[in-house]
Q: What sequence folds into this?
């Protein structure tokens, strides 16, 4: 009988240890759940920040593309204006030249100066 009684006490001690382990496991499970919730919250916040940054980057890319197109347009306008200025300068220089017919079919030219144009004289024979 004593043997049975000793065994029962031993089993009860083991069961008491099991209860203690079970309580510790429940406590650890609660802590893990808290950590899991905190981790999920952080992940959600990071995802939101990443999404906002991606939106900003996309907006910046679109704006950069628009600026690039605008620069190309302005470069084309600049080239056109340069061509126009060159044309107008050549027309102005052409209009400042005076050609006169000389004797024997020879021509002489002089450049006009301002409003008072130089008189052209026939080329010597």
A:
């Amino acid at each position: 009988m004593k043997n049975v009684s000793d065994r029962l006490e031993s089993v009860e001690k083991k069961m008491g240890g099991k209860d203690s382990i079970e309580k510790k496991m429940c406590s650890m499970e609660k802590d893990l759940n808290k950590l899991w919730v905190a981790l999920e919250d952080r992940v959600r916040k990071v995802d939101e920040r990443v999404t906002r940054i991606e939106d900003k980057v996309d907006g910046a890319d679109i704006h950069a593309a628009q600026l690039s197109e605008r620069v190309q347009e302005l470069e084309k306008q600049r080239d056109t204006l340069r061509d126009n200025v060159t044309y107008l300068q050549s027309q102005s220089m052409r209009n400042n030249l005076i050609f006169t017919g000389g004797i024997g079919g020879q021509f002489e030219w002089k450049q006009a100066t301002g409003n008072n144009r130089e008189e052209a004289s026939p080329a010597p024979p």
Notes: The longest helix spans residues 2-95. The helical segments are 2-95. The chain has one helix and two strands. The longest strand covers residues 97-101.
